[in-house]
From TrEMBL:
Domain Sulfatase N-terminal: 287-583
Pfam family, one: Sulfatase
Annotated transmembrane regions: 21-41, 53-73, 80-99, 128-147, 159-176
Pathway of action: Cell wall biogenesis; lipoteichoic acid biosynthesis
Lineage start: Bacteria, Bacillati, Bacillota, Clostridia, Lachnospirales
Localization in the cell: Cell membrane
Name listed for the protein in its UniProt record: LTA synthase family protein
Stored InterPro entries: Alkaline_phosphatase_core_sf, OpgB/LTA_synthase_biosynth, Sulfatase_N
Top-rank taxon: Bacteria
Membrane-related topology note: Multi-pass membrane protein
């Protein structure tokens, strides 16, 4: 029999005393505190019980993993419970104010601009609502209760080290699982970057935040260096390279490459500019430029002609082949949504082909000033304005537009003309607002406006009191064609409004260019589309499906310009074409793109088409390395390496 004061006796007695001292309510609090903390955080901005149960469980797992990691690190339960609660209370409050200020939640890529946000924080008014105050008080009570939970991890540093490693490994696995597309599809995780606030409400904060992290990193392309980008662009700066023929350009592919560069690309001989080439007179008058990126504007007959009760774009078609008009098709990288990516490609000249699938550059990659079409035109003395008859926070436009060089932006609340159709501001109102801004522009400044419309936005199935399907498609028996009929009827209204806009500027004394193109094709009935193709989607080739990424464009001028018809290019080239039509000196980057266009006229995230009409799917892009690698190097320098970016290559001399 051991002595009553032996070590084993004392140790067992101590453990028993601890268990008795630690009551069941406290055990229950320790078990539930991470979950309660998760719900309190979600409750700050929305009702967490409306989150699907599988995503609630994923939120619990995050909370338990965080507490478990801190428990093994600190060896104390109260620390493991209290620190996450403080973190979630602060994060939830910050997310509340971010939503209040910009109508978008905290996103992973906001970390890069946190310093800028803090520097302007004193310009905002922070007010605590009764709901937020009550939740923070609940956090304080929970924290005070958890401080009394005194459980320590028994054992030495080895046990803590093993536990910490295990918790860290499980946390890493958790993050990797949330970035696995198969698992995301199995769990039905909502992933629609345009409506991040809704995504956070559907998935919960941590699930949405961690899913978004997969879009953060873009790796340097092969052979990248700032010097290589500079050399490629410097060689493109000679004015003669922008107008060289495709035949002469083909020979340039075999020229010696920039020093230290071993990859493929396009190279420009360093021939002197000929004496008869004219430089741009900075004081000469420039035409007004009006660009309209029309929501879902497209012509589905590019797939195959179909019977329709009435032509849905008679005026637009009437401009094909007319004087002072360039017309054709643009290929885009998106279908049925993600408008901002087409917008990004047009305004910057960059392509989605070199960016992660599913990424949205406006939201992830643009946090500082980026030379783009607005800033280029601004340097020529243009008054630059962006118009979008919808929410300012969509795709972070209110933050991105100034960084691209727009001096001012108008959103739905700023419009004087607000006639609505299906609750969207009509194209007719948007075009009238363009005229309003033109008539009130600065007298001595050329005018550049860029408008993204909303009238034809998706959601075509329901019935509306203010809208009738006046145009009907035929050719598919026993099918409900309410969506395509609504869509075609909307396109006809756009066509009518565009006719009025052209009529107005036909009678203007100032030289003006109007460019309109569609951002993507719509999502309409599968049966209708399969009828056009004459086969099911499963039977279609990637080349056949590429027709779904084609939209029409018209570039019209009220003065004499060189005409062209039937041009087929991708949207990243369209701004360079616009600069040519306007008679403006292009940047070195735009000259590079103009020459690349002759060899590879279509580059999208999904496919490329070369000058001979050969089609390359995204999985075959390695066959185009010789052409694409130089472009990718320049784009990386332009979009991601701002510290080493020579802005003179992306802006006029």
């Amino acid at each position: 029999m051991k002595h009553p004061l032996s070590f084993d006796h004392i140790h067992k007695k101590t453990l028993v005393q601890r268990v008795r001292h630690f009551s069941y309510p406290r055990w229950l609090t320790a078990a539930l505190a991470p979950v309660l903390s998760y719900y309190l955080m979600e409750l700050i901005t929305h009702n967490p019980l409306e989150i699907p149960i599988q995503f609630q469980l994923l939120g619990w797992i995050f909370s338990y993993l965080l507490s478990g990691l801190l428990f093994f690190l600190s060896g104390r339960m109260n620390v493991a419970l209290v620190l996450p609660q403080i973190f979630m209370a602060i994060l939830g409050t910050a997310n509340y104010f971010v939503l209040s200020f910009r109508e978008s939640p905290i996103l992973p890529w906001d970390i890069a601009s946190a310093g800028t946000a803090l520097s302007v924080a004193d310009h905002f008014s922070f007010s605590f609502t009764p709901r937020l105050t009550a939740i923070l008080l609940a956090y304080i009570l929970l924290i005070l209760f958890c401080l009394k939970i005194r459980i320590r991890l028994a054992g030495g540093w080895r046990k803590r080290l093993i536990g910490t490693g295990a918790a860290a490994a499980m946390s890493a696995l958790y993050v990797l699982c949330l970035q696995n597309d198969a698992l995301m599809n199995a769990l039905n995780i909502y992933e629609m970057p345009f409506t991040q606030d809704y995504a956070y409400e559907q998935n919960g904060f941590f699930v949405s935040f961690l899913v978004n992290t997969k879009y953060l990193k873009v790796h340097e392309p092969s052979g990248y260096s700032p010097e290589t980008a500079d050399e490629l662009l410097e060689q493109a700066s000679s004015e003669h390279t922008a107008s060289r023929s495709a035949q002469n350009f083909s020979g340039s592919l075999n020229q010696s490459s920039p020093s230290g560069y071993t990859g493929g690309g396009i190279y420009f001989p360093e021939d002197p500019v000929s004496s008869d080439e004219k430089s741009v007179d900075e004081n000469q008058g420039h035409p007004n430029i009006i660009v309209i990126m029309n929501e879902a504007f497209s012509d589905l007959s590019v797939i195959e002609d179909f019977q329709v009760s009435e032509d849905y774009m008679p005026f637009f078609r009437s401009l094909y082949g007319t004087e002072n008009t360039i017309s054709g098709s643009v290929y885009v990288s998106v279908l049925g949504g993600n408008t901002a990516n087409t917008e990004f490609e047009f305004l910057t000249g960059d392509t989605m082909a070199f960016l992660p699938t599913g990424s949205i550059p406006y939201q992830q990659f643009i946090s500082g000033e980026l030379p783009a079409l607005p800033s280029i035109l601004q340097s020529y003395g243009y008054q630059t304005i962006a118009l979008h008859p919808y929410l300012s926070s969509g795709w972070r436009r209110n933050q991105v537009y100034p960084l691209l060089g727009f001096e001012s932006s108008l959103f739905s609340s700023d419009f004087l003309y607000k006639e609505r159709l299906r609750d969207y501001v009509t194209d007719d109102s948007a075009f009238k607002q363009i005229i309003q801004e033109y008539e009130t522009k600065e007298k001595d400044s050329p005018f550049f406006s860029f408008t993204v419309t909303m009238q034809n936005h998706g959601g075509y199935a329901q019935d509306w009191e203010d809208f009738e399907r006046n145009i009907t498609a035929e050719g598919t028996e026993d099918s409900d064609l309410s969506r395509i009929n609504a869509y075609l009827s909307l396109i006809k209204k756009t066509d009518d409004a565009f006719k009025d806009l052209i009529s107005y500027f036909e009678n203007c004394s100032e030289e003006t260019i109007i460019l309109m193109f569609g951002d993507h094709q719509p999502n309409v009935e599968t049966s209708f589309l399969e009828n056009l193709y004459g086969k099911s989607y499963e039977e279609m080739t990637e080349e056949e499906l590429a027709l779904r990424y084609q939209t029409p464009f018209i570039l019209w001028a009220n003065y004499d310009i060189e005409e062209e018809e039937g041009l087929e290019i991708s949207v990243n080239y369209l701004s360079s074409l616009l600069m040519d039509a306007a008679g403006l000196e292009k940047t070195a980057y735009q000259k590079y793109l103009s020459v690349l266009q002759k060899e590879l006229p279509v580059i999208t995230a999904n496919f490329c088409i070369d000058k001979d009409g050969n089609f390359y799917s995204a999985g075959e892009f390695d066959r185009l390395d010789e052409l694409l690698n130089g472009y990718e190097i320049i784009q990386y320098n332009h979009l991601f390496d701002s510290k080493n970016r020579n802005n003179s290559s992306y802006l006029p001399d």
